[in-house]
Design a protein that fits this description.
The chain is of the alpha+beta class and about 290 residues long. It contains 11 helices and 8 strands. Strands 1, 2, 3, 4, 5, 6, 7 and 8 form an 8-stranded mixed beta sheet that branches. It is globular, with a radius of gyration of 19 Å. The protein has 2 domains: about 5-180, Regulatory protein AraC (Jelly Rolls); about 185-285, Homeodomain-like (Arc Repressor Mutant, subunit A, Orthogonal Bundle), CATH 1.10.10.
Length: about 290
């Protein structure tokens, strides 16, 4: 079954503002699809299960989920569900304050340092505390009102309010990271995401933290349903898919930048994940066959 692509230009109301917002609620499953933009989903009420690249995420009120372009995802098992859906292009942040744009929270949530593209969904899941949730609901309600009403000042007003929302989300993310900064899983997760293009030795990392590798293994399986090495392979393939889709880099260059020993091994692993070799995947994406 081919994935369905959602194109931002088919949604956005203002030509100079790469942005769309609405409220979604459903009782029927939403099939596998992907976007040419970022999707931000913020749950206002109820519960839902969201699948991104086969990873399941359970969402309830106050959960915020960021999904980058080219990441296939689906939604199912709705229970009294409603959420703000925001579609946007990263160019909307052209006027964002540099201090916020360069903050660890913004980089962790919205960007991928080694690719310069929107980060994957696994990075960008955050559960907001009640106070933050209510404040964000008020901001999104105001954005939604301005978006629906339009007018000459609507674009700049929406941009300003969206920046406020992003700042609020980043502040909450920073608080949660500080609270959990000594959690070994957080450290391992950061280590993996910062070294995907390098040879990663989980045993050496466990020794460095003076934590048994078995314990780190269990933490990862608990959080992601996969071992660290399975997760690393999945993330490297996801990065490769983005590069195949969004750049003209050669297969060899992509293999090296994604941490694979050589293009032959890369092709073998990629085909085992995606069912087609990298060159075929790139061709299919360009032809809209995936």
């Amino acid at each position: 079954m081919n994935n369905i692509i959602t194109t931002l230009k088919n949604f956005q109301k203002f030509n100079n503002l790469p942005f769309h917002i609405d409220i979604i609620s459903s009782t029927k499953p939403i099939g596998l699809h992907y976007h040419d933009c970022v999707e931000m989903l913020f749950v206002k009420s109820g519960n839902v299960i969201n699948y991104a690249d086969s990873f399941p995420f359970n969402h309830g009120k106050g959960n915020l989920f960021l999904i980058s372009g080219q990441v296939a995802h689906a939604m199912l098992d709705f229970k009294d569900f409603s959420a703000y859906r925001i579609l946007f292009d990263m160019s909307i942040f052209s006027e964002l304050d540099d201090e916020l744009k360069n903050s660890p929270a913004f980089i962790s949530l919205f960007t991928m340092s080694n690719l310069g593209i929107v980060n994957n969904s696994y990075h960008s899941v955050i559960s907001l505390d009640e106070t933050y949730t209510e404040r964000l609901i008020r901001i999104f309600d105001e954005i939604l009102y301005a978006y629906d009403e339009g007018g000459t000042l609507a674009e700049e007003y929406i941009r300003l309010l969206f920046y406020m929302a992003v700042s609020l989300i980043s502040n909450q993310f920073n608080e949660k990271i500080r609270y959990n900064q000594y959690h070994p899983f957080i450290k391992l997760y950061r280590f993996i995401m910062n070294n995907l293009n390098e040879r990663i030795n989980i045993s050496e990392f466990a020794d460095k933290l003076r934590i048994p590798r078995v314990h780190l293994h269990k933490l990862f399986v608990k959080h992601y349903g996969k071992t660290p090495m399975q997760f690393i392979a999945d993330m490297r393939i996801r990065n490769a898919k983005a590069l195949l889709t969004l750049t003209d880099k050669s297969i060899t260059e992509i293999a090296t930048s994604c941490g694979f020993e050589n293009p032959v091994y890369f092709t073998e692993i990629f085909k085992s994940h995606e069912g087609v070799p990298p060159s075929k995947y790139r061709k299919n994406m360009k032809n809209g066959d995936i």
